[in-house]
Design a protein that fits this description.
Radius of gyration: 24 Å
Largest sheet: 4 strands, antiparallel
Number of domains: 1
CATH class: Mainly Beta
CATH topology: Methylamine Dehydrogenase, Chain H
Helix content: under 10%
CATH architecture: 7 Propeller
Structural class: mainly beta
Number of helices: 1
């Protein structure tokens, strides 16, 4: 019997080729790469969380942040804010982008905004939606975003945030701008803020309205914005987001700033986020505009904050302690 001898080098080459061919039939798993900054977070119940950011990134967790998966947005535009109501979700962003989902973000479809201006905020009440953005943009929809109408805002400054319910709505923006509508966004009138600093965020609970912005500015009104007074925040950092439930308010901002008020914004104390990163938004169950969760406790405890460097912070005790939530992304499978 003849024995064919194969040189060691040839055996190694054949082995490498065989392994390469075998791997061709397997699926490659790649970790998603994010754009760098996260801008908004939306929470449903105790376990479902959505986050949006640069480059059209949308993240979703159905287990309280233990793992995350990317959802396909269909856009590369920066997404600035998330809003949800019931089983529906909306997100707005650069280039007049408005995306809508009716299935928990499994699919996102564009809605025609009719503008190319960047949109920075969106809020709703029942079927009414209001979005605001650059160069005084105010868009209103009365049919959950199927059709959008541009409204005259009487300003050309950048509008950063909108909050309201029913017929009463407030918008804040650069140069201390505050606008108010008493007719569901059809017409708008200016209110006197008394400050020149840009305002980045606004929250209301009925006629009690609170706004925050550059230099740690916090303004409070108890009469629907007829009169505003300053509240000492204890910080010079820009405040970018505010949320609340009744008299309990939280605000977040640059350099990892998180503040808490137990009296509707009259007095604030710092909460230690443990991060130096700029925070873009803070949200929590029962702390989101236009949404009522009837089983939410009197003092909501489950809070989330997101910001620069793809940071996600989570607190389970009303902000007394914050932990960075690991961004464990489920691997995407490519054929």
């Amino acid at each position: 019997m003849n024995i064919v001898k194969i040189p060691l080098f040839r055996m190694l080459v054949l082995l490498a080729v065989s392994l390469s061919l075998a791997n061709c039939s397997k699926k490659r798993e790649l970790m998603p790469i994010l754009g760098g900054h996260l801008h908004s977070v939306w929470v449903r119940g105790d376990s479902e969380v959505w986050v949006v950011g640069d480059d059209g990134d949308i993240l979703y967790s159905n287990n309280g942040g233990t793992t995350w998966q990317l959802q396909v947005s269909g856009t590369i535009h920066c997404l600035e804010l998330l809003y949800g109501n019931g089983g529906e979700l909306w997100t707005v962003g650069v280039g007049g982008t408005i995306l809508h989902s009716t299935n928990d973000g499994q699919t996102w479809k564009p809605q025609s905004s009719g503008t190319g201006r960047a949109l920075y905020s969106l809020c709703g009440s029942d079927s009414l939606l209001i979005a605001v953005g650059n160069i005084g943009a105010i868009l209103v929809s009365s049919d959950r975003g199927q059709h959008w109408k541009q409204r005259k805002s009487i300003t050309t400054v950048r509008l950063n945030s909108v909050s309201g319910s029913g017929a009463q709505w407030w918008v804040v923006g650069q140069r201390g701008t505050i606008l108010h509508s008493a007719d569901s966004g059809r017409t708008w009138q200016p209110q006197t803020s008394g400050v020149a600093e840009g305002l980045r965020c606004v929250y209301n609970d009925g006629d009690h309205v609170c706004a925050g912005g550059f230099g740690g500015t916090i303004l409070v009104s108890s009469d629907g914005g007829e009169h505003w007074h300053s509240s000492a925040s204890g910080t010079k950092n820009t405040l970018t987001s505010i949320c609340g439930s009744g008299s309990h308010l939280w605000t977040a901002g640059t350099d990892g700033t998180i503040l808490y008020s137990a009296d509707g914004g009259e007095h604030w104390k710092a909460q230690m986020s443990g991060s130096p990163r700029h925070l873009e938004e803070i949200r929590g169950r029962g702390l989101q505009p236009g949404v009522v969760e009837y089983d939410t406790p009197a003092l909501p405890s489950n809070l989330w904050a997101v910001g620069y460097g793809d940071i996600i912070l989570h607190s389970t005790d009303g902000g007394e302690n914050w932990l960075q939530n690991p961004l464990n992304l489920k691997k995407q499978t490519l054929h």
